[in-house]
């Protein structure tokens, strides 16, 4: 059994995570769905050319509707996309993925693997939200969980340093679980539990549990079980 306080913290942050994930943006109409995954290339232009007039920069995770495609004279493919009911333009094909386009799940996985830190988290979240039937989901769930646990160590050090001089009437653990560095992860559905004795965050293990539940016969499931057992062991120890 996990310590009572730790179990309560885990329950509360899981409830908050469910609320965050339930808030889905509605995609624009007028074409097949696409999602911005590489903001380095996500310039919306007035014409299908790299030197075309810039309309705006699109953020990672932005939902688009692809209307058509055109290749420029220098061989770059552009999609004509609707950003909203009143905004449309051309965007480089490599900036987006589409759940209906064969091979885009593999292309996004490759981008996830080459990413680091929070960038990997956000791209993995896009994959899990928009490729529900992909055979690559176990690999993405494992990457998401492993990356979140790696980042927990850095978040712990950052929070300890920033809260060192803080004092107040609230319980110490509540300051840690309200640490602003956690906010952007929470918006991605990533939550952390706090080990009171060690004053350290750990990833709550949601991705590993989903992997075991939904893909019990996958090679990654056995590894996920080992990671969860290790997590629970560390939490019980402290």
Structure description:
Helices cover 46% and strands 18% of the residues. The protein has 238 residues and is α+β, with helices and mostly antiparallel strands. The two termini are 12 Å apart. It contains eight helices and nine strands. The strands form three sheets. It has a five-stranded antiparallel β-sheet with strand order 6-5-4-1-7. The radius of gyration is 21 Å and the shape is globular. The protein folds into two domains: 4-23 and 136-237, no CATH class; 32-97, SH3 Domains (SH3 type barrels, Roll), CATH 2.30.30.40. Strand 2 and strand 3 (54-57) form a beta hairpin. The longest helix has 27 residues, at 137-163.
Keywords:
8 helices, SH3 type barrels, about 240 residues, single chain
Layout of helices and strands:
Elements lengths: L3 H19 L9 E5 L6 E3 L8 E4 L5 E9 L5 E6 L5 E5 L3 E2 L6 H11 L2 H14 L6 H27 L8 H6 L5 H4 L5 E4 L4 E4 L2 H9 L4 H19 L1
Antiparallel strand pairs: 1-4, 1-7, 2-3, 4-5, 5-6, 8-9
Helix pairs in contact: 2-3, 3-4, 4-7, 7-8
- Rg from C-alpha positions? 21 Å
Structural class by secondary-structure content: alpha+beta
**Helix-strand pattern, N to C?**
HEEEEEEEHHHHHEEHH
Helix content: 40-55%
Total count of strands:
9
Q: Which strand order does the major sheet show?
A: 6-5-4-1-7
Q: Extract low-pLDDT stretches.
A: 10-24
Mean of residue pLDDT values: 89
What composes the largest sheet? 5 strands, antiparallel
Q: With helices defined by DSSP (H or I, 4 residues minimum), what is the helix count?
A: 8
Question: What is the number of domains?
Answer: 2
Shape: globular
Beta content comes to 15-25%
> How far is the first residue's CA from the last residue's CA?
12 Å
């Amino acid at each position: 059994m996990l310590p009572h306080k730790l179990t309560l913290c885990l329950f509360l942050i899981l409830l908050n995570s469910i609320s965050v994930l339930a808030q889905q943006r509605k995609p624009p109409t007028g074409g097949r769905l696409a999602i911005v995954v590489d903001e380095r290339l996500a310039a919306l232009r007035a014409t299908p050319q790299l030197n075309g007039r810039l309309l705006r920069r699109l953020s990672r995770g932005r939902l688009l509707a692809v209307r058509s495609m055109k290749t420029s004279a220098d061989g770059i493919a552009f999609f004509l996309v609707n950003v909203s009911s009143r905004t449309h333009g051309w965007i480089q094909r490599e900036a987006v993925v589409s759940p209906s386009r064969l091979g885009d799940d593999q292309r996004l996985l490759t981008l996830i693997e080459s990413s680091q830190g929070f960038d990997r988290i956000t791209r993995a979240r896009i994959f899990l939200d928009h490729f529900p039937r992909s055979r690559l989901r176990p690999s993405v769930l494992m990457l998401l969980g492993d990356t979140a646990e790696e980042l927990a160590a850095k978040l712990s050090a950052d929070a300890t340093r920033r809260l060192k001089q803080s004092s107040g009437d609230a319980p110490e653990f509540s300051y840690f679980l309200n640490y602003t560095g956690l906010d952007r992860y929470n918006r991605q559905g990533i939550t952390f539990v706090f080990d009171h004795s060690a004053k350290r965050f750990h990833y709550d293990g949601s991705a590993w549990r989903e992997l075991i539940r939904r893909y019990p016969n996958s090679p990654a499931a056995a590894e996920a079980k080992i990671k969860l057992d290790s997590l629970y062991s560390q939490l019980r120890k402290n």
